[in-house]
Amino acid sequence: RLDLPGTPQSYRASTDDDGGLQMFVMPGSGYRGTIVPASPALPITTFPWEPGDSLELTLDYGVSVYGHALFEDSAGTRRALAGASVYVVTQDGVRSTSAISDPSGFFHLAVQPGTYTLVCEGREFGQDPVLTVSDLDVPDEGRIYDFVYQDNASVVVDGREIGWLSPGMTQ
Length: 171
Description:
- By secondary structure, the protein is mostly beta strands.
- The chain is built from no helices and 13 strands.
- The strands form three sheets. Strands 5, 6, 9, 12 and 13 form a five-stranded mixed β-sheet that branches.
- It is globular, with a radius of gyration of 20 Å.
């Protein structure tokens, strides 16, 4: 992905089997490139780019953010939450590929050292609440974080859309 900060210009492309890509961009300077690998085991990589610059990049392995997704019952007993979707969001709003927790609840992501929002969406959409940790500092050594879902009674929320408000209308 290439973005030109301060403008609505944003370009996305996928790589081919050999890692090649092609984008047609508007002239300008100060582009920011972002690579979001398909594997959560490789980190998001951000770099400055100018028209005419090469895009020959080598992705490093970054540092680990790992932990467990767990469910804690009312007696305080914890058990693994398999199938939870965990990802990071950069300070620029770029979302990583999701890691899915294994049968022991373990998840692993790779990132560059920095500050992120770490998100656990739980299992299938709507089955568990979304847990979010903002401003998570990830040092050069990596970070361990466990998400713990509490045994709370579920509340069903029903509703319906009744229409859209037009500009100038009030509810």
